[in-house]
Write a structure and sequence with these properties.
Blueprint: E1 8-11, H1 15-26, E2 32-34, E3 39-46, E4 49-57, E5 68-73, H2 84-90, E6 91-99, H3 106-110, E7 119-120, E8 123-124, E9 128-130, E10 136-138, E11 143-147, H4 152-159, E12 165-169, H5 172-192, H6 202-221, H7 230-239, H8 248-255, H9 261-274, H10 280-294
Parallel strand pairs: 1-2, 1-5, 3-10, 5-6, 6-7, 11-12
Antiparallel strand pairs: 3-4, 8-11, 9-10
The structure holds NADP nicotinamide-adenine-dinucleotide phosphate (NAP).
NADP nicotinamide-adenine-dinucleotide phosphate binds at residues 11-17, 34-37, 74-77, 79, 82-83, 86, 100-102, 124, 127-128, 130, 248, 260.
Amino acid sequence: MTSDNPTVALIGPGAIGTTIAAALHEVGRTPTMCGRSARERLELRDDRGRVVVPGPVRIDPAEVENTVDLVFLAVKSTQVETAAPWLSALCGAKTVVCVLQNGVEQKALVEPYSSGGPVLPSVVWFPAQREPDGSVWLRGEARLTLPDTPATGVVVAALRGTRCSVDVAADFTSVAWRKLLQNAVAGLMALTGRRAGMFARADVTELSLAYLRECLEVARAEGATLGDDVPQAIVDGFRGSPADLGTSILADRQAGRPLEWDSRNGVVLRRGRSRGIPTPISDLVVPLLAAAGDGPG
Ligand SMILES: NC(=O)c1ccc[n+]([C@@H]2O[C@H](COP(=O)([O-])OP(=O)(O)OC[C@H]3O[C@@H](n4cnc5c(N)ncnc54)[C@H](OP(=O)(O)O)[C@@H]3O)[C@@H](O)[C@H]2O)c1
């Protein structure tokens, strides 16, 4: 490899994966695409039009012949274990795995399945949703934030000149926890079955602010530097969003799929408890999300 021209594979060609695959394809760097459902092509649409990424999406890790320099892992946090055969097939000792997932525990979650190369967490900023026709609707500018590590350059090189911009953060911990707070409160949408419009309610705003202040205290204990204004800014962001804007945990709830409740909400409760921080709202929200996602019943 040259760090300027890494070979790239994508595992998980869903909403986020399709966006990254299309961004790479548009500049002539179509990645090897690996999924669990056979597809002839991927399709991304946004305000500017449609991009078709020719496939096929591979579905058998045993057919992989070569390892690659860079893997984008865009399966849900609940799907990492089942995607492990792809990581074994695609990763050599130096392969960089860039995890495109919400949460603050991507490295710990994925490292057991990589082959010893660097695992890079990321913050994914763009909303993308899968449409009934199989296409993906990108509802914002594609943007990632990565930590400043020696391996980061490989991801920056792969995405250079694409529609997906990359910020490298010196204080990644703070950026990741800020996004986690946003995801945690978005979990309330999965409980109500409503989209961002619900934040127009005064009672939901009040609950959201109280929950976010709880999350903020845990985030700070975990080393994040975040101001007192963050809860209000996050709620204002939802109130200013299109009323029909969803979130991936709501889409999963409505489709009856497992929920990323542990990586998006449970983490606040777990980390809070281990630090002796009271988390009364998490104590209520997390079991409800867990039961909604995992049952039984
Ligand atoms: N969507 C958003 O707007 C957004 C924004 C920021 C962050 N995120 C985060 O990004 C991550 C990905 O979310 P997403 O919305 O892109 O999810 P998604 O649309 O459900 O995509 C996941 C993809 O992984 C595939 N997959 C599942 N198991 C697999 C396996 N064992 N091997 C290979 N592929 C497998 C799925 O296949 P099938 O096609 O068979 O389901 C699907 O194509 C999540 O952590 C989410 O929280 C999402």
